[in-house]
Structures are given as C-alpha cells and as structure tokens.
Amino acid sequence: MAMSGNLKVLMCASEVAPFAKTGGLADVVGALSKHLRKLGCDVRVVLPMYRQTKSLQLKLEALPHKIFVPVGIHHYTGYLWKTTTGDGVEVYLIEKDEFFDRSFLYGNPDPERGDYEDNAERFIFFCRAVFSLCLHIDWTPNIFHIHDWQASLVAPYLQYHWRNTDEFSTARCLLTIHNLAFQGIFPGSYYGITHLPDHFFNMEGMEYWGQCNFLKAGIVCSEFITTVSPSYAKQIQTPEYGHGLDGVLRNRSDRLLGILNGIDYDTWDPANDPFTVAPFDSINLSGKKLCKKHLLKELNLTPDLLDHPLCAIIGRMTYQKGYDLVHAIAPTIFDHGAGLVVLGTGIPEIMKLFRSLQQKYPDRCAAVFEFDESLAHRIEAGADIFLMPSRFEPCGLNQMYSLRYGTVPVVYATGGLDDTVVDAVEYPDKGTGFKFYKYDVDNFWEAIRNAFDVYAQPEKWQKIQIRGMEQDFSWSRSALKYMELYEQIIKTD
Ligand code: ADP
C-alpha cells in the first residue's frame, strides 16, 4: 500500500446505506466506504438528499454555499449538507427538493406509473453538482468512484468540462456497474440538456441507437470499469448478458475487472444481531432453531414446520429474481411438508400471485410485501434454505447473508451466485449450497429436492451450514482490491 494514506476517493452514488436504499447498491457503497477508510483512504461520499434521507433526522451541518447547476436552459440552485457516519466517513448530501424530495428514489415501483419523467434532468443535475461540491469544500479526489448510470455522467463531465482545470487535471474515474440491466436510456433529443460536446453524441460516445445512454457514457469515459463479481464481468461481454452493451464492454476488456462485493459482517452477524431473538455461530448453531421457532410464530406459520425445511426468498419482485420459478414450484414444496417465506416489493402481478398462494396455504406460506430490513434479518436467521433463482445476478448479497446465517442457498449458477456458492452435489466435501445449471422449473426443483434430501440427514446438513458460515466474504478483502486498483489507475494514467 504505497500511498493509501493520501489517496482521496469520492464515492458518487444515487443511493448509499443508511441514507437512501432501494437495493444492493446502497449496501455496497456504504460498506465499501467504511472499509476503505479503515485502510487509511480519505474516502468521502456524495448522494442526493431524498425525502427518505430527510426523514432519518440526521445530524446535519449546512455548508455555507449554494450551488448553481445548469441543466438544459435552466439554472438550478442547490444546497449542500454534510454529515459523518458512525465510522467517520464524511458524507455530502446535495439538496434540490424539486428533484429529490419525492416518495421514491427513481419512480413509482408500479411499472404502470414507472420511472420519474425527469430522471435525466435529476441525475444530470446530480453529476454536475458533484464538481461544484468539490470546489466548494476545496477538496478534489484522485478518484471519482462512480456507481451505475445515475452517477455515470461524472466521467464525461470530468473529461469534457473539468479535465483542463487545475483542480481536476489529475482526477480519474472508476465506474462500477452494479447491474447492467439499468442503463439510463433517454430520447436522443435530451442530449442538448447535458451540455456535453456535439461530437460525443456518436457511436463511440454516449449515443445508443439514436438515444442517450448514460451508462455507456460512463463506460467509454472512465479510466477503468469494475463490476461486482468475476463471472459477471465475463458474462456482460457476451450478447446473452450484455443488454446491448457487450460490444462496448468488449472494447474495454483490458480495463474491465470483476471484484466480488463483500458483506458487512458488522450488520450481518448471527452472533450479534439486534433484530433476532437468539445469537448463534458456526460453533453453536442452537440459537438458529430458536430463531426459526420465533419466525414461524411471527409469520403465523404452523409450528409443524420446525421439523421441516423452511425455504425463503427476499428481494425486489422483478423478472430478474425468478419469482415466477418460486411460485411455480411452491405447491411441490408444500407437498413435501416444507414451508415458504417471501419478503419483497415490486411488480404488482408478482405480489398478487404470492398473495393468492398465501391465501391457499396459510399454514405453510407467508408473504410480506414491504421493505423491512429487520424482518430480512429474522428470515435469514430463521429459515433453513434460501432460494435465489435469479436469471442473472451481478453479485447478489442475499446468498452471502444466507451463507453467513447457516441458511443454505439454492441458486442458479450465474454471475455472483456461481462465484460464491459451491455446489454440494458436485463437491460433496466442499459444498456450501445447491445449484442448478439450466434455467427451468424442473432443474430448480431438482436442486431444491437435493437440498431437502440432505436436510433430512442432520449431520451432513450441518456440515454444509458450517462450511457456508465460515466462508470469508468480508469487505476488508474486497476493499483491499479496490485500493490496489485505485493506485494502479493513478499510476498508469
Ligand atoms: P439487488 O441489489 O439486485 O436488489 P441484492 O441481493 O444484491 O439484490 O441486494 C438486495 C438487498 O436489498 C439486500 O440487502 C436485501 O436484504 C435487501 N432487500 C431487498 N428487498 C427487501 C425487502 N423487501 N425487505 C428488506 N430487505 C430487502
């Protein structure tokens, strides 16, 4: 670690836990920042000030500057706030109520109502405001670590607006893609409001079949690109998983790397989890049984399930996550005496399916359609098997939480799921979960049935649980990799 003490990194993201969260991105940015700081990096964070953030009643310091940000023909005034996390990371919040004081971060989760119509303006504003922030606090990072499409335009703004200034001449961009399915695509007519140079709206630049593609702009203008698992880094360079950007990514393959996300062991620790009723660890698993008993009661499920596998799934209810497969297989799961717990919000049709399932099997099936962090912990602690049949999964956090909580994952062998779970059928002495390799209901069921078979052999089952619990998915390991990459970027450019 040659220069870690001096390395300055600004995390630019549209969500950061605990300030604003819709999914894994928030967890990653929050935890990575904390661990980079532990490594001696001067890491700071910037995100918009949402209504969700305001409701947290944070201790905030108002910075004594207004910022003026042009978007199209408008000049918007924004305000800057600062807070510090319990771990000492400085966090800047950009306030512009017109854009961010809303019920949701990106739009109504009901697809009928969809994304906010002004998302392009909102995140152009955010990306440009980042530079004003740096100037006002008189602090310029060596690396802008930008995340997903919402922060992607920081890269072209650096390249075309700021690179030739004294303040930003040595700054570089690292883009992390958390999910390539979300690219921030807007009509080509929006290009004018970015104020980026005309020549950048072409095939080598931000243009994508006549439209504006924010993520593509980030990919082509960043010095380096990472994604959140080694397998996903390979997959996104193929037409099957490339969401139309595989060619663009292949062009940058020498600057593209997969770094597996870690999980925050301070927050997700079964031995010390304020949300659960009994602690447990890989040496003494007895508390897990108490957690299961409590969960069954909390969700009004039959206590008979104490002696049968309790399956669970948590996550955004979208096509990606494979809820359709879980729904299709549920009656078979119940026929085998097992139970199912579902926690998620998202597409109304999916919620409707699980609502009916719960009505049909009230003893064995519980479905909760809320975003409930504490319940997520109790489910991880109390369930036996975690189902994660994602069609694609850049990294996935829930399977890692499950491993940590002795909740054996059954996953589709894709992306980060493939990188983090070892198939107990293929590798009986090393297995930490069960995988299926062809995406259909039959193969999914076969993997679940294999899990049920081993569940019926408690000694064997416990070995799988313990192996999973003892895996190291710590952030310190991943943060070190990012640190090395930052230094490489600074040196090579
Ligand atoms: P993604 O980022 O694609 O949504 P991940 O598995 O990487 O999926 O991360 C999802 C994160 O969001 C996890 O921390 C998970 O526990 C949490 N989460 C998702 N939906 C819910 C919910 N309804 N209630 C509580 N936590 C949720």
The side-by-side strand order for the widest beta sheet comes to 3-4-5-2-1-6-7-11-12
Strand content: 15-25%
Radius of gyration: 23 Å
Distance between the termini: 18 Å
Q: Give the number of domains.
A: 2
CATH architecture of the largest domain: 3-Layer(aba) Sandwich
Q: Given the helix and strand composition, which structural class is it?
A: alpha/beta
Mean pLDDT rating: 96
Structure keywords:
Rossmann fold, 19 helices, about 500 residues, binds adenosine-5'-diphosphate, alpha/beta, about 20% strand, single chain
Please describe what this structure looks like.
The chain is of the alpha/beta class and 493 residues long. The protein is 38% helix and 18% strand. It is built from 19 helices and 18 strands. It has a 9-stranded mixed beta sheet with strand order 3-4-5-2-1-6-7-11-12, with helices on both faces. It is globular, with a radius of gyration of 23 Å. Adenosine-5'-diphosphate binds at residues 23-24, 27, 314-316, 343-345, 371-373, 376, 396-398.
Layout of strands and helices, then pairs:
Elements (H helix, E strand, L loop, with lengths): L7 E5 L11 H15 L3 E7 L2 H4 L6 E11 L2 E11 L5 E6 L1 H4 L18 H19 L5 E5 H5 L1 H9 L9 E6 L7 E2 L4 H4 L12 E2 L2 E3 H8 L2 E4 L2 H6 L10 H6 L4 E3 L27 H13 L11 E5 L8 H13 L3 E5 L4 H13 L4 E4 L4 H10 L2 E4 L9 H7 L3 E5 L2 H6 L13 E3 L4 H15 L2 H12 L5 H18 L1
Parallel strand pairs: 1-2, 1-6, 2-5, 6-7, 7-11, 11-12, 13-14, 13-16, 14-15, 16-17, 17-18
Antiparallel strand pairs: 3-4, 4-5, 8-10, 9-10
Helix pairs in contact: 1-19, 4-6, 6-8, 11-14, 12-13, 12-17
Adenosine-5'-diphosphate binds next to helix 1 and helix 14.
